[in-house]
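#structure-requests
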Amino acid sequence: MQSQNRLNARLERMLPEQRLYLRSDTATRFIRLKPHTQLIALAGSAVVVAWAIVAAAIVLMDSIGSGNLREQAAREQLLYETRLNAMAEERDLRSHEAAAAQDRFNDALAEVSAMQSKLLASEERRKELETGIRVIQSTLRDTMKDRDVARAGESRARTELAEVTGTTRTRNGQVDDLTETVTFLSDALNLTATERDTVAADAAAAIELVETMDYERRLMQDRNDKIFEKLEEALTVSVEPLDKMFRAAGLPPDSLIAQVRNGYSGQGGPLTPLSFSTKGEDPTADELRANDILKGLDRMNLYRIAAQKAPFDVPVKSAFRFTSGFGPRWGRMHNGTDFAASHGTPIYSTADGVVVHADWSSGYGRLIKIKHDFGIETRYAHLSQIRVKVGQRVSRGERIGDMGNSGRSTGTHLHYEVRVGGKPVNPMTYIKAARDVF
C-alpha cells in the first residue's frame, strides 16, 4: 500500500488526480482517477493503438503483395497464352508441311510405280533382243556349214571326174565327158557363187542387225541406268524419313518390319522380286539392281503398314491448346498429354487397333482404350460421349468419341495416354517423330 502511495506521489506531477462527476436527478457522484489508474488506462490505449497500426500495416502489405501476385499471375497467364498460340500456329504450319510431304510422298510413289512398269517393259524388250541375236547367230552358223558342205561336194566331184575320164575311154568319149564335166562344174560353181553371195549378204545383214541391236541395247542400258537412279533416289527420299520416325519413337525398324511381315498375309503383286536364271548363270547387274529396288519398295510398303498400326497421329484435328504435358505435376505423375478445346470436339483414333474398353472408369470418366500392334495401347479420357464398342476394330483417323469434362477433371479437355508394354510413355514422342513425315 505504501509502495502504491509512493508511486502515486511520483506520478502526481505528470498525471494529477482527476475526478469524473456523474450526476442524476437525485444525486451527484464522482469517480477518482488516481495517477496509476490513468497510467494503466493510457498504457492500454497505447497498446490498442499500436495493435491497430500493426494490423493496418499487415493488411496493407498483404493487399500490396496480393496485387503483385495477381499482376504476376496475369503476366504469366498472358505469356502462357502467347506461347500456346505460338505453338498452335506452329502446329498448323507443321500440319500443312505434313500434308505437303504426304503429297510429295504420293507423287514419288506414283512415279516409282510408273518407272517400275517401264523397267519391266525394258527388261522384256532386252530379252527379246537377246533372243533375236541368238537366232541370227544360229542362222549364220548354219549358212557357213552349208558353204563348207558345198566346197566338200565340189572337191569330191573333181576327184570322181578324174577317175571316170581315164585313158581307156575313146577320145570322143573323153571330149564328151570333159564337156559334161565342165558344164557340171560351171553350174556347180555358179550355184556355189550364188550361195556364197547370198551367204555374204545374209552375213552383212546379220552384222548390221547385230550392230543395230547392240546400239539399241546400249541406249536401253543408259535408259535403264537413268530409271534405276531415279528409283533409287525416290526410295532414299521416301524411306529415310520413315526410318528416322520409327527410331525417334523408340521402335527398332528391323524388328518392327519383321513383326509386320510375319503378320501380313498379302502375297504376290508388283513388289515380287525378279526370278533369276535356272541354268546356273549368275544374275546380271541390272537384275541385282532391280531386286534391290524391289526390296526397298517392299520395305517402304511394310513401313506404311507399320505407320498405320502405331500412334503417330494427333487425336484432335480441330483447333486446340496443350494444357498439360507428360511428367510430374502437383507432386504426382501425369501419365499423358492434355488437349483443351470446346465441348463436343471430335476425338479420333491415332492408329489402327481394337477397342478393349469403352465405358466409365474411376478418375478417367468416360474412357476408351484401344489395343494396337507392337504392344502399344492408347487411352482417351474425360469424354462427353463414346462412339465405339468393345471389340470394334478402328482405323487411324476414325472418330471414336467427343471431348468432355467427365471424371476427375477441372475443365473440358482430352487426357491422351500412350502405353508400351503397360508402361506410360510420352505421347509427344510419337507425335513429334511423325511431324516431318505426315
